[in-house]
What we know:
Blueprint: H1 2-11, H2 17-28, H3 32-45, H4 53-66
Helix pairs in contact: 1-2, 2-3, 3-4
Amino acid sequence: xxxxxxxxxxxxxxxxxxxxxxxxxxxxxxxxxxxxxxxxxxxxxxxxxxxxxxxxxxxxxxxxxxx
Length: 67
């Protein structure tokens, strides 16, 4: 997932999707501090009007509960 996320960031640096996959990589590896940092960076790239922004924020909340 890490390599896939980095590839997406190389092609679409303004997209939050690459950061999502990198964050997921760290989350599944139980590195919650790094996952939280990456998820927050991805969330900040999102348009607040995006209907998926609230759903994406659930990733941040999930990691906060695991810490």
